Amino acid sequence: MTRVELLRAVLRQAKQNGFSFRTWYETRICLPWVSLPAAVEILAAERRYYALLFSHEFAEAFWKSGVKMTYLVPPTTFTTQTRNGKIITVERRPYTRRTNRPDNWRYHLREMATHEEPLRYIRRFVVVAEDLTSAGAAVKAAYSDESFNFQK
User: Fold this and answer.
1) 124 within domain boundaries
2) What was the pLDDT predicted at 95?
């Protein structure tokens, strides 16, 4: 998924929750409105999407308060020390998480600010058709008979 496609998907989700992109664009970016594709191209090309992602109006609409939100937590690997003093490497699988905090948009703004690439952070919350098909194939492969080693 390209940056422009991702921005369109993010804007689509925010618009469903009441965000007016055109109004925001004209007041915050201070450029004349030509069209939606042109505006998204300008945001993507000049990395002005940071202004959009960290805008409170956008964040409130994207992570709507009180709405149950489902997102994917990526896999992580880290080292830790056991009670015996032995150093082990822990590998956590990706998992789905659900939340419905009243001020969840503030929480996600803080998390996105500490993330390396904010656009990758927000990508976890956008569900597109290609994710559903790839996730379905992964689940089917994980639970197929070939993945289990049954001994008779």
Assistant:
1) yes
2) 80
Whether the CB-CB separation of 73 and 97 falls below 8 Å is answered with: yes
Tokens of 83: 């009670």
pLDDT digits (tens, 9 = 90+) for 21-56: 999 999 999 889 999 999 999 999 888 899 999 999
How far is C-alpha 106 from the chain's CA centre?
15
Q: What is the DSSP string of 85-151?
A: S-EEEEEEPPEEEEE--TTHHHHHHHHHHHSS-HHHHHHTT---HHHHHHHHHHHHHHTSGGGS---
**At 143, which amino acid appears?**
Y
The alpha carbon torsion through 53, 21, 61, 57 (nearest 10 deg) reads: 70
Torsions phi, psi for 16 (to 5 deg): -65, -25
How far apart are alpha carbons 123 and 20 in whole angstroms? 20
Structure tokens of 4?
A: 């422009």
Range of the domain at 120: 3-129
Q: How many domains does the chain have?
A: 1
| Rounded-to-integer distance, Cα 39 and Cα 63, Å | 22
